[in-house]
Amino acid sequence: MNRSKRRTGRRHPLATVALLALGLVFTGGAYAAFSTGTAQAEVDPTSQSTIEEGKKLFQANCATCHGLDAEGTDNGPSLIGVGAAAADFQLSTGRMPMQMQGPQAQVKPVQFTDEQIKQMAYFIASLGPGPDIPADHLVNGGGDAANGAELFRINCAMCHNVAGAGGALTEGKFAPALTETSGVHIYEAMVTGPQNMPVFNDLNITPENKRDIITYLKYVQDNRSPGGFELGSLGPVAEGLFIWIFGLGAIVAVTVWITAKSN
């Protein structure tokens, strides 16, 4: 009888495993929450530690071309006054650091983490006033797509194509396609004017109108051509050339075939 009681009071062998697993879940969750809070504190633009870390990263990776204090050298322009938006755009699209000299910086895999990019961007922002990284409500696609389409046709389509497919410029330069570009990067490009792009400040295009342009481009990204093959979205010239070469070519081939059969 005592032996039976002892058996009843014994812990199941899997209970220890379950307790260990539960402890790991709680420990991991607490660590993740702590890590998230720490990362957010480190990228606070008002934090001196963020600026100091950004300065270290900048001097280790960018100073060769831009100078230790971002004052510029013969190999790179001064970054004083370009703002956080310019640094965030160039670094988070992989354009900087440049892989090689050329007509314009090429997009390539990003070299830094999001945290490091923000740290360097806020360090650049601390050197002089300039455009800031846009707020979420300006880039989330919640504007007027119809107004954005009109503004895009007037200000942007001559280089980027009316559907944002991109286009060639002079001397090996080009306007990139916007078919996969994020709202943040579109906004930052408008306010900083990277490469050959002009600057559209708030006096040229208001923040609300920039939001509308982003809304239009997001609509184009999410709603592809309902007519089938887009031919690169290059417009009537490409479509007309396709009809002339393939359409008329097919008609001529059918005509020759019919003539040959009739003989």
Automatic annotation (TrEMBL):
EC number(s) stated in the UniProt entry for this protein: 7.1.1.8
Modification note: Binds 2 heme c groups covalently per subunit.
Signal peptide annotation: 1-32
GO CC annotations on file: plasma membrane
MF GO annotations: heme binding; iron ion binding; quinol-cytochrome-c reductase activity
Recorded catalytic activity of this chain's protein: a quinol + 2 Fe(III)-[cytochrome c](out) = a quinone + 2 Fe(II)-[cytochrome c](out) + 2 H(+)(out)
Subcellular location: Cell membrane
Entry annotated with the keyword Transmembrane: yes
Transmembrane intervals: 241-260
Any Pfam family matching the protein: Cytochrom_C
Domain of life, source organism: Bacteria
Gene3D superfamilies registered for this protein in UniProt: Cytochrome c-like domain
Keywords per UniProt: Cell membrane, Electron transport, Heme, Iron, Membrane, Metal-binding, Repeat, Respiratory chain, Signal, Translocase, Transmembrane, Transmembrane helix, Transport
Annotated binding of heme c 1, by residue: C62, C65, H66
Residues annotated as binding heme c 2: C156, C159, H160
Membrane topology of the entry: Multi-pass membrane protein
Domain Cytochrome c stretches: 49-128, 143-221
Oligomeric and partner information: The cytochrome bc1 complex is composed of a cytochrome b (QcrB), the Rieske iron-sulfur protein (QcrA) and a diheme cytochrome c (QcrC) subunit.
PANTHER family for the chain: CBB3-TYPE CYTOCHROME C OXIDASE SUBUNIT FIXP, CYTOCHROME BC1 COMPLEX CYTOCHROME C SUBUNIT
Protein name per its UniProtKB record: Cytochrome bc1 complex cytochrome c subunit
